[in-house]
Amino acid sequence: MKVVFAGTPEFAQVALAALHAAGFRIPLVLTQPDRPAGRGMKLSPSPVKQWAQAHGIEVAQPRSLRLDGRYPEDARATRERLLALQPDVMVVAAYGLILPRWVLALPRLGCLNIHASLLPRWRGAAPIHRAIEAGDADTGVTIMQMDEGLDTGDMLLAERTPIRSDDTTARLHDRLAEIGGRLIVEALELAACGGLKPVKQPDEGVTYAHKIDKSEARIDWTEPAGVIERRLRAFDPFPGGVAHLGDTALKVWSARAEPGQGAPGEVLSVGDEGVRVGCGEGVLCLLELQKPGGRRLKVKEFLAGHMVRPGMVFAPPAD
């Protein structure tokens, strides 16, 4: 089976490696153009591009696939290459570009998407983050036949996994990436023998995982401690939580919700085991902090160089 792969981040790179290891022929990989990254803001290739080049696979980086869009020359060149290849299927995982109708219709078996949720829950850009933030008991991966809607296509395969109480987006991401790689191999093996059975998504239970905005990092201490704790796990590794103590904007990376009572934002106690802060409901024990320009530190290390004492008050979020 001839597979064209379209993806960009580490989640997609895991699936690409799984397809390659399973013996599928992958003559072309599509990925996003190189982006500035790091302190020097040098152009950096995506994880998918790095892996593909290391394994001798041709890479294309169109800025758009819309023939009537801003970069029609990129779209035309990509279409010509795909027409020449005549792929059996395109596998898509966190690619980052919208696939127009001509792309969806070109492969013999269409385009299959690896989506990191149990559809129809958490369609959209940030399904892993939003599942943790919402307190979902479980999530999973769905292999979907792509159509022109936003994650609305027929479901082909799915696998469920629990969301653990200590799962961050980083940890859950890695587990779902492994499931996605295994599941897409299974899907293509079934497709080769006509064994896939498409199932339409139900109309009930649809939710949208909107893209994470940096403004969401600001901690609102009037919220319940459990809500803030889940959001911190959801926002690790990006964008973290932000809490203003005096003139300093601290990053809060991990915390534990505890029973108790105190004024929202007030530091109730300080110790090597954590900094306990009052919330709208319960108490949040801060476990890992970072000052501007510093690194993530366990609270014991952080307190060795920074003054935090009971009675201090974290500022409320700006309007």
UniProtKB/TrEMBL annotation:
It catalyses: L-methionyl-tRNA(fMet) + (6R)-10-formyltetrahydrofolate = N-formyl-L-methionyl-tRNA(fMet) + (6S)-5,6,7,8-tetrahydrofolate + H(+). Keywords: Protein biosynthesis, Transferase. GO terms for molecular function: methionyl-tRNA formyltransferase activity. Residues 1-188 form the Formyl transferase N-terminal domain. (6S)-5,6,7,8-tetrahydrofolate binds at S117, L118, L119, P120. Residues 211-306 form the Formyl transferase C-terminal domain. InterPro entries: Fmt, Formyl_trans_C, Formyl_trans_C_sf, Formyl_transf_N, Formyl_transf_N_sf, Formyl_transferase-like_C_sf, GART_AS, Met-tRNA-FMT_C. It is an enzyme of class 2 (transferase). PROSITE patterns: GART. GO terms for cellular component: cytosol. Attaches a formyl group to the free amino group of methionyl-tRNA(fMet). The formyl group appears to play a dual role in the initiator identity of N-formylmethionyl-tRNA by promoting its recognition by IF2 and preventing the misappropriation of this tRNA by the elongation apparatus. This is Methionyl-tRNA formyltransferase. It comes from Caldimonas caldifontis.
